[in-house]
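Please annotate this fold before class:
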Amino acid sequence: MRSVDLAIYADAVAGEAAALAARRERERSRLRQAAIERAARAELPPPVVARLDELGLLATRANGADLRELDRALEAVEQLQAWVEARLAASAA
């Protein structure tokens, strides 16, 4: 493999890792927001909750399974990234 090809591929893999990390952070944020909304729903008076539901303000949906899947995907991409970088370093030696 040519080092230039490895370097280009390393950049593509790094971009994918960054995109997955951003998606994971957005999912974590949704989980936190959903927890806040559940607490508000439990503590506010029912008429207020009904109005907030009508406004769509207590509607955040989050899924812990999605976060776990993103974690696994990111771990796999990071392993690929490490492999590519090792190959790149070996080709430069």
